[in-house]
Amino acid sequence: MRLVSPVAGTVRALGSVPDEVFARGMVGPGVAVEPVRTAVQHVVAPVGGVVAALHPHAFAIRVSDERSVLVHLGIDTVALAGAGFVPHVVAGQRVRAGERMVTWSPLDVASGGRATICPVVALQAAPDEVRLLLDPGETVAAGQPLLEWAE
Question: Using CA atoms, how far apart are residues 7 and 117, in angstroms rounded to an integer?
Fold first, then answer.
């Protein structure tokens, strides 16, 4: 199963996320993307499935009973209580990979002193089941292949 990048930016190792839960892989394996700091950025679904959880700053897509993918927009952004995030989907909605999920401003998040890095995590995967398609430091476009999750 191939996952696409939810945002445009620079690929970063999950271990570089300034949050121990993500950095140590406690949630699951994956990668992070440091988004381009624009005033408006559209976040897209990394994979097709059903929106299993939706918060202004994060969402999870259930692909099957055994597979879900989490996207978290920035770190400590839950404290913003939704300010600056505009969801375009609802929980329970079926989405396609590349479909617009949320609009946000990485520029505003950064100006508020929060990290803008976006973890993309394969929730039920074992570390050896997930393979990066791009190396840390490479630039990625929203919707461009990012990860492969072994079947």
Answer: 10
- The residues annotated with a catalytic role in the active site are 72
3-state secondary structure at position 109: helix
Domains and CATH numbers, the chain: 2-149 (2.70.70.10)
pLDDT in tens, 19-35: 999 999 999 999 999 99
Mean pLDDT of the chain: 96
Task: State residue 75 phi and psi, 5-degree precision.
Answer: -115, 135
Alpha-carbon gap, residue 151 to 148, rounded angstroms: 9
Query: Nearest 5°: phi and psi at 21?
Result: -60, -45
CA 20 to chain centre: 16
Which residues are within 8 A (CB) of 129 and not within 5 positions of it... i.e. 6 or more apart? 29, 122, 149, 150
